[in-house]
Prior knowledge:
It catalyses: a primary alcohol + NAD(+) = an aldehyde + NADH + H(+); a secondary alcohol + NAD(+) = a ketone + NADH + H(+). The protein is an alpha/beta fold. The chain has helices at about 40-50, 95-100, 160-165, 170-180, 200-210, 220-230, 240-250, 270-275, 300-305, 320-335, 350-360, and strands at about 1-10, 15-20, 30-40, 60, 65-70, 85, 125, 135, 145-150, 155, 190-195, 215-220, 235, 255-260, 280-285, 310-315, 345, 365-370. The strands form three sheets. Strands 3, 5, 6, 9, 10, 17 and 18 form a seven-stranded mixed sheet that branches. Strands 13-12-11-14-15-16 form a six-stranded parallel sheet, sandwiched between helices. A five-stranded mixed sheet has the order 7-2-1-4-8, with no helix packed on it. Helix 4 crosses helix 5 (about 200-210).
Amino acid sequence: MKTKGALLRELNSPWKIEEIELGDPKAHEVKIKMHAAGMCHSDHHLMTGGIPMGGFPILGGHEGAGEVVEVGEGVTDFGVGDHVVLSFIPSCGKCRSCEAGRANLCDFGAMLLQGEAVSDHTFRIHTAAGENVYPMTLLGTFSPYMVVHEASVVKIDKDIPFEIAALCGCGIPTGYGSSTRSGDVRPGEDVAIIGVGGVGTAALQGAVIAGARNVFAIDPVEWKREQAMKFGATQAFASVEEAMNEIGNATEWGMCQKVVVTVGEVHGADVDTWMSLTAKGGTCVLTGMGNMMDTQVTLNLAMLTLLQKNLQGTIFGGANPKLDIPLLLTMYKAGKLNIADMITREYRLDQINDGYTDMLEGRNIRGVIRYTEEDW
């Protein structure tokens, strides 16, 4: 079928809305009519080259929600009309990682940036000129329609608004899990959240719900610091340097048992600064993405050893997509998790460049693209 999508044709160029040709679902695939797509910083990394895809053009978008309109052969868990979230981490349920309870490290993840469909290693999306299109993390939610493998699809209740559900494809479980799973925040602990955009605000809520004593939010944007206080932060600071003495005094210089780094772009030179906020025996969780070519890190190895600190990487917050996405939406329905107020603005697909400008200039916690009858 013919539809449209937001494509990147080269680095450091704006998104361009183009006509694309979408193939029919093959075995174990589903076609989805999209209703909402979240605008995550990771898609901006495609533009800068921080996340290198297998080629160009690239169809962006890895957060989204919609409804199933067609299923391929062998699909038994989904039917036409089902409401679903697209998980940027697929979960096959059969590989060694999935069987070991680490579904966020599913073997299908090795194919996320190649652009080829999991089912048969062919391209499901083409431009009007017949070029292969590389969809972000095998998804490409910046299009009104998608064909994806069932491993990337999670069924949800039909009474959940699509814009709420969309954020659970990446930002909410990544942030919340960074605190509660990878960070394992315990009641009474002191926690610092570095960067309070979409992922950071979810991490902040995770720390609060887990029972943290103090949750310190650090972000250079004043408006985001104000929002962090509304989501449960106890104090907010513009920088680690500004926060150091205040956090020290509040923790009797024990510092934070958990530090969760959710900045838009991680730089290796900052790692030791974040570790300086981390308590003896504490854990610093690196959630934000750095450039894949960056191998230089500043870290005091002696202090890492002598103070027995932990530097923990995480993807998807250590969450299990098939399990945790429905659970987080259950918390939303129960009023325990505030997702609605994380959505700052909604955009049309043709406003995508405006949305990313707003994100980069600190005006959004999360922007969301909404699809309408005009798009379908």
